[in-house]
Amino acid sequence: MTDLTPTLTGVASTFLAYTAGHALVDRVWQVAAPARYASLSRRDRIYLAEKVSSSVNAVVVSALGAATIFGRRGEYSNDLMHAYPLSAHHAFVHLCGYTIYDLGTMWMQGGDHWSMWVHHIMSAYGTSLIMYYKNPSFFPLLFGVSEITALANNVVWYLQTLRPSSRSLPYVLMGRAIMFTVARVWIGPYALMRMLAHAEWSPRKLVAQWFEDPDMSRVASVLTLVNVLTIAYFNVGWTIAVWKLAIRGWNKSSKVSSTAEKRHQ
Questions:
Q1: 3-state SS class at 205
Q2: pTM over 0.85
Q3: pLDDT in tens, 147-177
Q4: Where are the alpha helices (DSSP H) in the chain?
Q5: Which one-letter DSSP state was computed for residue 136?
């Protein structure tokens, strides 16, 4: 039986590191900008530190995912369904520990959209299953690449919260929409394409690979497919939402600029 102690230790260490980092960043804000900190709601005070943790996780997980999947070594080029590279394991350990921490911040804040709860819960049980069964690791790791969009979300949040009248906000909103389009929309179709290509474009072989392979856990297979389809759907929905916000922000900025010009004429 596989010794899970190193994995559990890694997850716990990551969780504790993010928790300690959160407390440190929160304290820095209290000392460096006490008046600004006090003016924020409890939810936003939590976000001040959580956004730093979120940015670190985004960089680590997306970098590990991209390097493992698209790197020169081609970790999954010969075996899409059973390969379990060490770098993938590190990404899952990190993401699992971070997700547990982030679920705690979401619970303390309240008010998050239901899709974010589903996304985080899926990340928690999805990484746990893959770390235990070790396959099929390619697909959850692929979706980890899109975590990089958290950076754009966080920049937007800081501007909207701390500098809501900033003239750069419309450009940042547009940048976020572009980043979501580049990093999220293609993930679902690409995952499906890789599935079908690995099965030689045969629906019968596809079913056999996912549900008849004795080396594949049925639980892991089913829940991984559920995660892939659900997050692929969310990726499109989230991208549409950020584009709507970007266009709304851009139009609002244009109207303000036009009004200001008329006043000076």
A1: helix
A2: yes
A3: 999 999 999 999 999 999 899 999 999 999 9
A4: 5-32, 34-39, 42-70, 86-109, 114-133, 138-144, 149-162, 169-183, 187-198, 203-211, 218-263
A5: S
